[in-house]
Amino acid sequence: MTAAHACAHTGVMSDPQDAGRPGEAIQSEPAMSQNPADATQKLDGIVVQTRADLAGQDGLDGASVLAQRLRDAGIDLTDDEMAAAVARVQA
Question: Are 86 and 66 in contact (CB under 8 A)?
Answer without folding.
Answer: yes
